[in-house]
Amino acid sequence: MARLSKQVQKWRWVRLYKRIWPFVKPFWFRSLLAILITLPIGALDAVMTLALKPFTDTIVMSNGEKTPFDLPLYVIPLGIIGFTVIQGLIEYGAAYLTTWTGGKITQEMQRRLYKKLMEMDQSYYDAHSSGDLAQRFNGDPAIACSGLLNNIKVFTTRVFSSIALICVLFYTSWQLAIMAIVVLGGALWPLAGIRKRIKDVVKQSVQVSADGYTVFNETHAGAKTIASYNLQEYQKNNFYNLLKRGFKLSIKTTQRTAWLSPMMHVIIAFGMAGAIWAGSYLITSGQMTAGDFVAFMTSLLALYTPIKSIGKNFNQVQISFLAVERVIEILDYKIPIHNKKDAIEMPPIKKDIVFHDVSFEYIPDTPVLKDINLTIPKGKTVAFVGNSGGGKSTIVSLIPRFYDVQKGSITIDGRDIRDLTLHSLRQNIAMVFQDNFLFSGTIRDNLLLGKFDATEKEINRAVEMACLTDFINELEDGLDTHIGERGSLLSGGQKQRIAIARAFLKNAPIVILDEATSALDNKSEGIVQQAIDNLMKDRTVLVIAHRLSTVRNADMIVVINEGNIVEKGSHEELLEQKGAYYTLYNAQFKKKA
């Protein structure tokens, strides 16, 4: 069992190396140099401690008498200053190289992660909070790369300093050196299990950090809701509870790791005491000179001092490795919705969109759509109505492949949409939602998202068709007016019309309107509805609406309840049937057809 565990650990490190190497490869020389340059830093520590031997033997112990190794008084002090200056310059170079390479590797990793984020399917966003995304896609790379390199630099410096100092110990007294090494091994032994002890705590701490990001994001996005419902205390309590959890985890981390340093102090104290006792015996017995003893004790102090704090640095290295694992986990995530190897560009629509026995579920064994069969002819308007949660939005979300069907198929002109490239499929679909997302910037910036190379004539045409002309003319900066984050400086109707103008510029043959007017007042709805009517001309349109007055003129109305199509037909035909649509209609208008 133990052998199997070691094999698993071995393959885990091999896997990490293979996945992280592509990020390091472009900067491998500087990365290696950043680590190798730390070697002389450690070696110079040993040189300075070794210099104390001739200084003590030739100057301190000679009482002014000439010796075979007599040195001028200024040589050793000046040498120490010179070595320290060289050590400082090398240390600066190591810090610069570490920061540069760590920053570049982090930057490349963040690029790759953001590219992966842009390719993620909608279900991934559904399952992860904004805070979790910010932490894992932005925070972890910095910890994984820059943090790891900085800690490896410190760790390497201390390791090679220790090796050089151990050499000095053996040079001055091999007997005392053996004893010192045994003590050193005892001091470092507890580090072996540190990773296992902190892994679960680090994981929980990362989640608390992600939850903190989420709270801040929700506080910003939901500021009006918080104010209108007097939720300040509720939100503060949420945040304070996160702070408490974070505090408890930090205490738990301290409980699991803080004992390392004092334990090392105690073990090293035994080593120092033993070295002094044994050294005194060796000096009095003539087996060791005073210079040897001073050099030995100075080297031992230089060796043990950083070792006593190496536990904290080792903890940080382990945290960085855990961050690397989280990054690799994302990079290895298999995106379920992707292009097939032989996917083709979507040709112009000639006939229809057809749902063949389509079934879908977000949660296993909880169907949302059940054996949907529906044909949507080219150039026709099809409206979906029914009770909330019946599956209307899910149906239209399947066409641009925000999700993939679990059973059945959706075809356009007889071709399965999974055989088309995602880019070409979505390029042929324009969507207007109930709450359209506008990006920070100007009105023009948001319109050009529909078509980046749109001419001024095309932009003005889109503005006119979206009934925005009067509104734009009233603005001092016109199309170059800044609208705030998520269009916070605009009314609901204005945001809707900008989204419609953006859809006009995209000029897609398929238009999906997901309750585009349900959140508007009557006046705004009338203007937006006119803009929508303009957008719908000569296109295949799918409309989701709660207000049945907005879909009366649809070519076909599809009534969906509990994942099933219960009725379909024109407004007049459905009223005549006096079924589900008839009931919905009367419930809204309080009158008989």
Description:
The chain is of the alpha/beta class and 593 residues long. 63% of the residues lie in helices and 11% in strands. It has 22 helices and 10 strands. It starts with a helix and ends with a helix.
Q: In this structure, how is the largest beta sheet organized?
A: 6 strands, mixed
Shape: elongated
Strand order in space, largest sheet: 6-7-8-3-9-10
How much β-strand is present in the residues?
5-15%
Structural class: alpha/beta
What is the tally of beta strands? Answer: 10
| Ends apart, CA distance between termini | 76 Å
Number of helical segments?
A: 22
Keywords:
593 residues; alpha/beta; four-stranded antiparallel sheet; six-stranded mixed sheet; 22 helices
What's the helix and strand layout?
Blueprint: H1 2-24, H2 28-36, H3 38-50, H4 52-60, H5 75-119, H6 122-127, H7 130-172, H8 174-188, H9 194-221, H10 223-228, H11 232-257, H12 260-284, H13 290-331, E1 352-363, E2 366-377, E3 381-385, H14 392-398, E4 407-412, E5 415-416, H15 422-427, E6 429-433, H16 443-447, H17 456-465, H18 469-474, H19 492-506, E7 510-514, H20 522-536, E8 540-544, E9 556-561, E10 564-569, H21 571-577, H22 580-589
Parallel strand pairs: 3-8, 3-9, 6-7, 7-8
Antiparallel strand pairs: 1-2, 1-4, 4-5, 9-10
Helix pairs in contact: 2-5, 3-5, 3-7, 3-13, 4-13, 5-7, 7-8, 7-9, 7-13, 8-12, 8-13, 9-11, 9-13, 12-13, 17-19, 19-20, 21-22
